[in-house]
Design brief:
The chain is an alpha/beta fold and 675 residues long. It is built from 21 helices and 24 strands. The strands form 6 sheets. It has a 7-stranded mixed β-sheet, sandwiched between helices. A 6-stranded mixed β-sheet has the order 19-18-21-20-23-24, sandwiched between helices.
Length: 675
């Protein structure tokens, strides 16, 4: 069924197979321009799924772009949310919005987020990005169609690596149980995922036999042959009394020579940018899309640049202003190095690998979270590394089995997945049994940036803190991440290491004191050439009261912002600030909190997290432990009960009010209230 007018039932637009093939070239070209303009995105999978997407949105499904909520429309769920650019291009080409707008991909407030957000753009059926969940939603939608006696069909696009997730197979089983012949799953079988070939990461074959054994009709198609795709879709709609899966054999990075069948191009844009051997220019030459000359590319890039300039203006306009610019490295003095905190975890896991008792696990983003440093320079350790694929729940339980036998298991993934998806396994199998498993909670906070809300962990401090037996560290920089990781490896029982992805200011040194469970007190002394040398750091147990005006209690990357806020407060208002680096959140340093309450009386907490996850822990300690013989004011800085957005990491910190400028403003307001 071509694109139709939902009110009259008349055909709006139909394409021949030859026209579809040409349109697919154009779609691939827009896709590559958008990913290049964004500076990030998933090249490989968006190119492998593009022919399927064109067939669905331009030829096959019943839908009306002028009426996105039409009740009789067919539904297409993209469980593979990271292939969002292909979805956006498909919707644009179908007429939901001007297709040129897709070049705003991953830019703040554009709606074209790193993973689909159904509230931002018309035509998106599901906000997705956490793999393994889309098919279950599709099952519910198909069941509803039966319940309401509706004739719409439900399609669900899955990645083959995604089939590692057990939740997919639960959905497969339920769809068969209810004989959902109005449901068609499509597997993009390109045979590559982030950590390598699917059969090496976690063996999937024989896929046909597996799906058949669950009661599905299995069809196969050449995912790059338009006639074959359309014929297979026709066959699928004729199957009765069972759901159908179409296994579409594709090539990752299809039509772009430098990306075809290359694992590294799963999640990056052209390495050479606009020109070069692996560039947008080369990609467009390969694709041969009609009309995509340099003039058109320049116009599209101008749309992206103009939009970003307006975003920059709005973001900076909203920032609190002071007598000068205190932003990182904006002055000739107070310079700071920027190093991703995950590098500290990598250095620690390499060192810890010397112990034969340590075993590690991969969850298809092994290199991204730096777990691969365990074996990168030590190939003999490979026998103690276990690739589990995209299966966080199973990985947790398997690591518990090792811990049961005396090993120390290190598991890890994005924070959202490794402490969220498998919370029950962490609670019951790890914590209840007090098993010695350490969790690398990577990419915590907003630092994953352009990937958007589905990948930004903003809830796990509170999720982990209230689990009995759990230990939790939230280090401030790469050096502290290394020290903290080594420290938790030495304690018995489960532990979480929450660290960021992007470059974070290095605010400590090798000789900076660090003790698990004991906070650091940091005081600004005087301006120096290097930021870190402008401060003095002591263990809280060795710190003597200096009668400061304000205390800021922070964890993770917010410690650096708290330190910069202390600098601003001193230079602008001559106020002294006690910065408390609460790198160990559990067991938390209660004494340091209570002393600050008694001695300072103005407390501000700072967290790159939902406000209160950390702040309410501190507030509870104060409320239950303070002697109320001095005036006391308290407030919190954090994300205000909302999901994240796509945008550059520092851009997001500004937008969500998590920078030193906002901390200094709030701290001054509290101080003035006390006065």
């Amino acid at each position: 069924m071509p694109i139709i007018d939902s009110k009259t039932g008349k055909i709006k637009k139909d394409y021949s197979i030859e026209e579809l093939i040409e349109k697919t070239k154009e779609m691939r070209a827009y896709n590559m321009v958008a990913i290049t303009a964004a500076g990030s995105g998933h090249t490989g999978g968006t190119l492998s799924i593009m022919d399927i997407a064109a067939a669905l949105y331009l030829k096959y499904i019943r839908h009306d772009p002028s009426n996105p909520e039409w009740e009789e429309r067919d539904r297409v769920f993209w469980s593979v949310g990271h292939k969002a650019p292909a979805l956006y291009v498909s919707l644009g080409m179908a007429g939901y919005f001007p297709v040129e707008e897709v070049v705003k991909l991953r830019k703040l407030w554009s709606g074209f987020e790193g993973h689909p957000n159904r509230f931002k753009l018309p035509g998106i059926e599901l906000s997705s990005g956490s793999l393994g969940q889309g098919l279950g939603v599709a099952v519910g939608c198909a069941l509803n169609a039966r319940l309401e006696k509706k004739n719409y069909r439900v399609y669900c696009i899955l990645g083959d690596g995604e089939l590692d997730e057990g939740s997919v197979w639960e959905a497969i089983m339920s769809a068969s149980h209810y004989q959902l012949d109005n449901l068609i799953a499509i597997v993009d079988r390109n045979r590559l995922q982030i950590d390598g070939h699917t059969e090496e990461v976690m063996r999937l074959e024989d896929l046909n036999t597996k799906w058949q054994s669950f009661g599905w009709q299995v069809l196969e198609t050449d995912g790059h042959n338009m006639k074959d795709i359309l014929d297979t879709l026709d066959k699928a709609t004729k199957i009765k009394e069972k759901p159908t899966v179409i296994i579409a054999h594709t090539i990752k990075g299809k039509e772009v020579s430098f990306a075809e069948n290359v694992v590294g191009y799963h999640g990056i844009c052209p390495k050479d940018g606009l020109t070069g051997k692996e560039s947008l220019e080369k990609a467009l030459q390969d694709i041969k899309a009609p009309g995509f000359d340099q003039i058109k590319v320049n116009k599209l890039m101008e749309i992206a640049c103009t939009y970003q300039e307006e975003v920059n203006r709005k973001v900076e306009q909203a920032m609190p202003k002071f007598s000068k610019n205190y932003w990182w490295n904006s002055q000739e003095i107070m310079k700071v190095k920027m190093i991703p905190t995950r590098f500290g975890f990598g250095a620690a896991i390499e060192e810890l690998g010397e112990s034969p008792e340590v075993v590690t696990f991969g969850a298809d983003i092994t290199s991204s979270i730096k777990m691969d440093q365990f074996y990168a320079k030590h190939p003999e350790r490979k026998e103690r590394f276990f690739e589990m694929g995209i299966a966080e729940q199973n990985m947790t339980s398997v690591a518990a089995g090792f811990a049961k036998e005396g090993k120390i298991g290190f598991i890890g993934s994005y924070g959202v997945f490794i402490t969220g998806r498998n919370w029950d396994q962490i609670r019951t199998t790890l914590c209840y049994n007090n098993f010695n498993v350490k969790i690398a909670n990577a990419h915590g906070g907003l630092s994953v940036g352009p990937d958007g809300a589905t990948h930004q962990a903003l809830e796990e401090i509170s999720n982990m803190y209230y689990l009995p037996h759990m230990h939790l560290i939230v280090p401030a920089d790469s050096l502290e991440t290394k020290k903290g990781t080594i420290a938790v490896a030495k304690i018995s029982g489960p532990a979480v290491i929450r660290y960021a992805r992007e470059a974070t200011p290095v605010i400590s040194q090798e000789d900076t004191p660090y003790k698990f469970g004991i906070a650091n007190v940091i005081r600004f002394r005087e301006e120096k050439e290097n930021f870190v040398e402008a401060f003095e750091t002591k263990l809280s147990t060795e710190y003597q009261n200096e009668k400061e005006d304000i205390a800021i209690i922070a964890c993770g990357p917010m410690v650096a912002e708290a330190m910069r806020a202390a600098y601003i407060l001193k230079k602008e208002y001559n106020l002294e600030t006690r910065v408390i680096n609460m790198h160990t959140v559990k067991p938390i340093d209660k004494e340091a909190i209570l002393k600050a309450t008694q001695e300072v009386g103005v407390i501000l907490t700072a967290e790159e997290h939902q406000k209160g996850g950390f702040g309410n822990i501190v507030a509870g300690i104060i409320a239950t432990g303070k002697f109320y013989n001095t005036p006391f004011l308290f407030d919190m800085i954090g994300v205000n009960d909302e999901f994240g957005l796509s945008g550059a990491p520092w851009e997001l910190l500004k937008v969500f009010g998590l920078t030193a400028e906002y901390l200094a403003k709030k701290a001054k307001e509290l101080y003035d209230r006390k006065k």
